[in-house]
Amino acid sequence: MSWNGADLFVAGGRLEDVPGLTPAGPSGGFGESDAAARTDGGWLHVHCESRGLGLAPHSPATVRADGRVVLVRYSGVADVHTLEVADGGTLVRRVVRSQGEVVVDEGPALPEEDAEPVEAHDPEEWTFRVLARLTGVEVRNLPGTTGWQPLAPTTAPNPS
Fold first, then answer.
1. 156 assigned to some structural domain
2. Of 103, 91, 97, which is closest to residue 115 (Cα–Cα)?
């Protein structure tokens, strides 16, 4: 499946920790805006559909958080998948896979990155499984769920 979008997770985070985003109307179902947020298992989760990619932070290190911040971007159509992890405001890991090849590999690999055979050959599957290991949240189960807060930019969208 070709997913296009971004997901940001902030451990113990609040929406005000994410620069450039503000609530945009009442909470509701997923898909009512280009970006939406909710709390999942102790994580603030911001999901951006492909139309809302410019709303995602440029880097997880720009989020005001003392704990872990995980940002994934995925473009199944272009076959580019990015995983970035920051701890305490410092970027500790960045991996970009393009057309199955690792083109950016910064910081030491995380234990959660150990690939199973199916993941090793499928960058999209690898991205979603590593994200689930890091956060405990399955991104693929999101569409159609409830409890999302639609978001809008507070200023010009972040560069992507």
1. no
2. 97
Residue 148 domain flag: no
1-47 pLDDT tens trace: 567 788 899 999 998 888 888 888 776 665 557 788 888 889 999 88
Kindly give the pairing relationship between strand 35-40 and strand 90-98: unpaired
d(CA 105, CA 20): 27
pLDDT number for residue 160 = 46
Give the largest Cα separation in the chain, rounded.
Answer: 43
Question: Does residue 160 lie in a domain region?
Answer: no
Nearest CA to 38 among 3, 70, 10? 10
Distance CA(6)–CA(46), nearest Å, equals 8
Whether residue 67 is contained in a domain is answered as yes
Q: Are 45 and 54 in contact (CB under 8 A)?
A: no
